[in-house]
């Protein structure tokens, strides 16, 4: 039986996910972004005559240590190594003595920012459209920096890098169409489940729900038919209408007995009593 394990890990582990993890659950929809691990780079040029301005994003979504240090680049021209998303602004002027000047280095998503500054929101009713990651970063030049990363669920797009949408007033907007932005349980909606945690969990609760309602309806039918029968057959009245009255009168005593046994088994000696204490 694997279901109780899943249930336990869901209950005990979920509140502990502190550092951003690429295997995440947003509004109880599971995503696995770990295939997006690796350093990704994307940039956008804007003509700013007589120069060209370039905004360059370097990103490492999954590695907990961030993008690391790039060799051959001055420290002041790159973000600290433990940055997940770094924005660099460059200015290109071919005729200048320094044709590729770095004008700003902005750590947008430092790996060590608190949990509550990272927001993950599923898109679409069941997250089938993807996942939105919004990050509140630090101040840069007096402006709070933000990241708006839209991961679009697409089975056909496999772009190795995100698209740079814009950088305005401290907000970096990136968009990335990838199959890895699809919820995990929706990977293969038509394929039979191989006992994956999502589907298994669902059918487990479905089963419990089925048993619950089945018992309720069964009890109602039992008493309804029993009372009707006793009334028609014996013209019974009052408590005599209840089917198997003697048995139901015994039930409280039986329950009391059962609990007495249970507690005796839990409290005392490790001796097993009728199997009640041998659940493990
Ligand atoms: C984030 O970017 C998407 C486009 O990728 C845009 O539609 C959306 O409005 C942006 N969100 C914010 C808060 O700016
Ligand atoms: C299910 O298991 C079969 C073999 O046991 C495998 O070929 C298939 O890829 C699995 N499907 C999924 C969705 O994991």
Automatic annotation (TrEMBL):
Entries under InterPro entries matching the protein: Autophagy-rel_prot_27, Man6P_isomerase_rcpt-bd_dom_sf, MRH_dom
PROSITE patterns referenced in this protein's UniProt entry, alphabetically: MRH
Domain of life according to the entry: Eukaryota
Record domain MRH: where: 20-184
Membrane topology: Single-pass type I membrane protein; Single-pass membrane protein
Predominant subcellular localization, coarse grouping: membrane
Record flagged with keyword Cell cycle: no
N-terminal signal peptide: 1-19
Matching SUPFAM superfamilies: Mannose 6-phosphate receptor domain
Spans through the membrane: 204-229
Keywords, alphabetical: Autophagy, Cytoplasmic vesicle, Disulfide bond, Golgi apparatus, Membrane, Mitochondrion, Protein transport, Signal, Transmembrane, Transmembrane helix, Transport
Name of one Pfam family that matches: ATG27
The keyword Transferase appears for this protein: no
Compartment annotation: Cytoplasmic vesicle membrane; Golgi apparatus membrane; Mitochondrion membrane; Preautophagosomal structure membrane
Assigned protein family: Belongs to the ATG27 family.
Protein name in the entry: Autophagy-related protein 27
